[in-house]
Amino acid sequence: MRLFVLAWLAGAIALQRAAGLPEFAWGALGLAALLAGLLFRNTTLRAGAVVAAGILCGFGYCAWRAELCLADELPVRWEGADIPVTGIVEGLPQVGEANTRFLFAVEASAAFKSASAVFRRACICSTSAFR
Predict the structure, then answer these.
(1) Beta partners for 123?
(2) Are residues 44 and 65 in the same domain?
(3) In 2-68, which ranges are E strands?
(4) How many domains are contained in the chain?
(5) How many other C-beta atoms can be found within 10 angstroms of the C-beta atom of residue 27?
(6) Are residues 12 and 54 in the same domain?
(7) Which of 2, 3, 8, 40 is least enclosed, having the fewest CB within 10 Å?
């Protein structure tokens, strides 16, 4: 179990060092390697299969979670358009050298029926040109 967890961590670190997200579902291949490891009677082969499965599962799981986080985006047709929204400012503005930003919880919008279908929170930022 410890060997699998350490290999899982190694897979997660390998994804962090990758330049982009993979196109292939590596997690499924990791599950297949884990099931194949059950067939081996030799402890060395079984340990190798567990390490391979852990690395692949960790890499695949972290890639899947990253893909879910990156999938939340504004539709292309709304880019550059004014979208009236209503909501609540969730915190104090953070003033930087070049900008001011704050978190905004979207409650409703005229552009779409359910605000939560697209985004629930927005980080609104104004550059120094708009101050």
Answers:
(1) 103
(2) yes
(3) none
(4) 2
(5) 19
(6) yes
(7) 2
